[in-house]
């Protein structure tokens, strides 16, 4: 396919006490909400570089649309997330956006600080070269990007208990194989979920200055820090 892709951003409203909770040992609720706000803003700017007229912000919880009013670029379309778990929400978002665009689709989250426009363009190029699905693996065993030429909801049909765990990528690849979908892989990236992630990301020279400033407010952390949900 040669059509430019639509980009859907999966985002949780930046509400204190409800976002980035695994970072609570090093940042307070207000700081975490601000961190989420910056991550959402960065994801939107990134998407607009690649798809200025075809970017969708898929927000959660469904009643939180007003929370994005001060964040939203007027070119971005709002779509409420639906579903009881991440797999259902991804499936619904993919379906809702595809039904508006009927073309290639790239879905990203907001918690990968080092993602660039080049990653999105590379995913689009791989779709154009013939892959049915393109995935950007995250270092924690999930993925930060999934793209498809057509509506391939089967890639989200994995064991619901796996979402958020270290086997999401493996299960997704297995689902794609079952349905005979060709898959291309991007370079892996680290997401920002835990204190150890923050420790590693703050070393990255390409981290945005605003995110670096926020992470520099964190309480001291060490490589041995472990947080469980």
Reading the helices and strands in chain order gives EHEEHEHEEHEHH
Shape, principal axes of CA atoms? globular
Structural class: alpha/beta
- Largest sheet features: 7 strands, mixed
The largest beta-sheet arranges its strands as: 3-2-1-4-6-5-7
Rg, alpha carbons:
17 Å
Strand content: 15-25%
Indicate the mean pLDDT. Answer: 93
Which stretches are poorly predicted, pLDDT < 50 over at least 5 residues? Answer: 223-229
Approximate helicity band:
25-40%
Number of strands: 7
What labels would you give this structure?
alpha/beta, 7-stranded mixed beta sheet, 15% strand, globular
What features would you describe in this structure?
- The protein has helices at 29-50, 86-101, 117-128, 168-178, 195-201, 209-215, and strands at 6-12, 55-60, 77-80, 105-108, 133-137, 143-148, 183-185.
- Mean pLDDT is 93; it is low at 223-229.
- The protein has a 7-stranded mixed beta sheet, with helices on both faces.
- The protein is of the alpha/beta class and 229 residues long.
- It is globular.
């Amino acid at each position: 396919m040669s059509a430019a892709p639509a980009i859907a951003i999966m985002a949780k409203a930046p509400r204190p006490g409800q976002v980035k909770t695994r970072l609570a040992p090093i940042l307070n609720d207000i700081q975490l909400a601000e961190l989420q706000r910056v991550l959402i803003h960065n994801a939107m700017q990134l998407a607009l570089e690649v798809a200025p007229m075809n970017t969708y912000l898929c927000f959660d919880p469904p009643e939180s649309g007003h929370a994005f009013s001060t964040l939203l670029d007027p070119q971005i379309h709002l779509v409420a997330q639906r579903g009881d778990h991440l797999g259902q929400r991804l499936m619904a978002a993919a379906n809702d956006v595809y039904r508006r665009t009927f073309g290639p689709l790239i879905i990203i989250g907001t918690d990968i600080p080092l993602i660039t426009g080049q990653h999105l363009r590379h995913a689009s190029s791989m779709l154009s070269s013939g892959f049915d699905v393109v995935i950007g693996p995250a270092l924690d065993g999930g993925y930060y990007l999934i793209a498809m030429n057509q509506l391939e909801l089967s890639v989200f049909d994995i064991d619901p208990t796996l979402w958020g765990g270290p086997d999401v990528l493996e299960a997704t690849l297995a689902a794609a194989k079952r349905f005979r979908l060709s898959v291309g892989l991007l370079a892996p990236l680290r997401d920002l979920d835990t204190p150890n992630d923050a420790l590693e990301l703050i070393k990255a020279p390409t981290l945005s200055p605003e995110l670096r400033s926020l992470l520099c407010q964190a309480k001291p952390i060490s490589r041995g820090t472990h947080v469980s949900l």
